[in-house]
Amino acid sequence: MSNTSIEDDSFALVRSSIDMAGVVRDVRAGHDGAIVTFDGFVRNESHGRRTLYLDYEAYEPMALAKMKEIGQLIREKFAIHRLAIVHRLGRLEIGETSVFIAVSAPHRAPAFDACRFAIDTLKRTVPIWKKEYFEDGAVWADGELPPAPPSPPKAAS
Amino acid sequence: VAHVLPNLRVTVLFFGRVRELTGVTEEAVELPVGATLADLFDHYAERFPALRPFRSSLVASRNQEFASWDTLLSENDTIAFLPPVSGG
Asked: Beta B65-67 vs B59-62: how paired, if at all?
């Protein structure tokens, strides 16, 4: 079994096109048997309206911290070797990659599971927002409200 | 001598649709010691009445961690008001 930690994983927010081949190269090693990647890119329509482009913004330090938390959860749950999560910000045209995830592992099952977990959790918990631009206006995409933690305990009176 | 409650100073960030609605990206604000995240939201809802209906569709963070509305503020906290997230 490979001996890697969260320190070997890579979490990034970028403002230009994502070097997907480079990300894959960085998670790949001789003792791996599988890499699973997720390439999320800009669709040309939303709810039947033709999309012109998207604009992404993030609470950058918190987004990076939450991406790293996803990595920590993945390392608790799945026997992976390396993980990379890259999200692009700013204006993205149709077909451009907005998020790219690569997971390497000795065996395919944890690589698939971890990759799916990473994108699903990112979409629920990482503070990134997209605005969709159409021919007749723009809207903030419907999103998911991250769950707030329970209230802090009340001081004894 | 009148007793004046001391104030605490926090940095407040808005994102997405509530950034557009308030026109505020980042600013410092002072509130009395003992104020909660809910009090801070109310401060902005008075300044920007259109913000008030958004409370149930916002989550707040304190120092980059999601936090409940009854969380007490501390000096130099960074608070953010976050709409539903839509990355990916």
From this structure: antiparallel
Instruction: Please name the residue ranges forming H helices in chain A.
Output: 20-27, 60-77, 108-125
What is the complex's ipTM, to 2 decimals?
0.93
What backbone torsions phi and psi does residue B14 show, to the nearest 5 degrees? -120, 145
Give how far A155 is from chain B: nearest CA, Å. 12
Residue % of chain A over a pLDDT of 90: 87
The answer, for B72 touching chain A at a CB cutoff of 8 Å, is yes
pLDDT for the residue numbered A142: 93
Per-residue b/e over B22-50, b at no fewer than 16 CB within 10 Å? bebeeeebebeeebbbeebbbebbeebee
pTM value surpassing 0.90? yes
- Asked if A58 is an interface residue toward chain B (Cβ–Cβ < 8 A), one would say yes
Alpha-carbon gap, residue A99 to A107, rounded angstroms: 24
> Buried b / exposed e across A103-139, counting CB within 10 Å, b at 16+?
bbbbeeebbebbbebbbebbbbbbbbbbbbeeeeeee
Cβ burial, residue B14 (10 Å; 0-12/13-18/19+): buried
- Residue pair B15/A127 in contact (Cβ under 8 Å)? The answer is yes
**Considering only CA atoms, which of A36, A61, A119, A130 is closest in space to residue A92?**
A130
- The answer to whether the CB of B30 falls within 8 A of the CB of B6 is no
Half-sphere exposure at residue A62, Cβ-oriented, CA atoms within 13 angstroms: 25
Distance from the B43 Cα atom to the nearest Cα atom in chain A, whole angstroms:
20
Here the tokens at position A80 are: 């992976």
